[in-house]
Specification:
alpha/beta, Rossmann fold, six-stranded antiparallel sheet, five-stranded parallel sheet, 16% strand, binds iron/sulfur cluster
């Protein structure tokens, strides 16, 4: 039985693509990419797992790391509206999928892409450009738009019957929905989308590029979590927004401590549950006071006159700082936000 790699989110398009190939007798490996933000922080790719299980195909999860970081730092084709380097990201993933296909002996890489469905990265000419740039011309099968595209190697070799594939283009999902209904397919509903397309994540990324251009993978992961404040080019503080983020930020803090202990410390309230904050860089005494005051501000005891905040790590020896919770105006002054113009080489 021939193997096929299908790039797989677990959403409607990739589920239909995987099913269409499985129905032709191919042994489908559903390849799911996990963005660096969600890798190694205890978040499961539940939607991909459920959809793959329902389809009865093997799921292979690839966590993005340093290679993704290199790509996102200087994308050849630039960024979309925010920090999303979609064209380079597609090229990077297609190349990675092609390497996995080679390793596993799969005859093709397939995707759930539909010509003309999304801006830029899925326009017809872009699909060709991505293939060419990735060095995989003729090897990427797009079952949903196959009949509108030149035949791929597996179609020419008769391994995949082109006539049984689709000729879908544009944004409507009517054909895919009807096919999913007919075959009883389970698919994930559209999620919130990639965090790199988010306006505020874009602002944090721009801040990182402008002030810490040699940022690490953990620095990059942190842009997806917490509230971010920068008091100087040398110092920023990130404060969790809820208990789920406390856990994630704690894990990322442990990794930062292991790699650059002199550059990071954490803060938390001594006498009440509350957020966890990570300070990064070289803080002044004023920076420490602000960070502690901001941490106190996001707790349930924000109305108290004085709150005790513990600073630990980076030789702070569990120092206790008593602060008045920060005012909104002070938070606004230092908040990393899309309202502020950060000089950045993003475009
Ligand atoms: S939206 Fe995000 S994951 Fe999707 S191609 Fe763009 S950068 Fe990559």
């Amino acid at each position: 039985m021939h193997k096929a790699i299908v790039m797989f989110s677990g959403g409607l398009d990739s589920v239909v693509a995987a099913h269409a190939l499985k129905s032709q007798g191919l042994d489908v490996i559903a390849l799911h990419f996990v963005l660096p933000f969600y890798a190694g922080v205890g978040i499961r790719p539940a939607q991909a797992e459920e959809s793959a299980e329902a389809l009865g195909v093997t799921l292979r999860v690839e966590e993005e790391g340093e290679e993704f970081l290199e790509m996102v730092r200087s994308p050849k084709f630039g960024y979309g509206k925010n920090a999303n380097p979609c064209i380079d990201c597609r090229i990077h993933r297609v190349q990675k999928a092609a390497r996995i296909a080679e390793e596993t002996g799969a005859v093709c890489v397939a995707t759930g892409e539909v010509a003309g469905q999304r801006p830029m990265s899925q326009k017809m000419h872009m699909l060709h450009r991505i293939e060419k740039a990735a060095g995989v011309k003729g090897k990427i099968l797009r079952p949903l738009s196959a009949k509108l595209l030149p035949p791929t190697e597996v179609e020419l070799a008769g391994i995949v019957d082109r006539e049984k594939l689709f000729d879908i283009s544009g944004r409507t999902r009517a054909v895919q929905l009807a096919y999913a209904k007919e075959h009883g397919l389970i698919h994930a509903s559209p999620a919130g989308g990639c965090t790199l397309t988010n306006l505020e994540t874009g602002a944090r990324f721009a801040d990182l590029m402008a002030n810490n251009p040699l940022f690490s993978l953990i620095d990059f992961k942190l842009i997806a979590y917490g509230r971010h404040f920068r008091t100087s080019p040398k110092y920023r503080v990130i404060i969790s927004r809820n208990s789920g983020e406390n856990e994630i930020i704690e894990k990322l803090y442990a990794s930062l401590q292991a790699s650059s202990p002199s550059n990071v410390f954490q803060m938390y309230l001594r006498d009440a549950p509350g957020p966890l904050a990570i300070g990064l860089g070289e803080p002044s005494e004023d920076d420490l006071r602000f960070s502690a005051a901001a941490t106190a501000r996001f707790s349930k005891i924000r109305d108290m006159e004085s709150v005790a905040v513990i600073i630990s790590g980076n030789n702070f020896d569990n120092r206790v700082t008593n602060v008045r919770p920060a005012e909104e105006s002070e938070l606004d002054r230092y908040r990393v936000s899309s309202d502020k113009k950060v000089k950045t080489p993003l475009r």
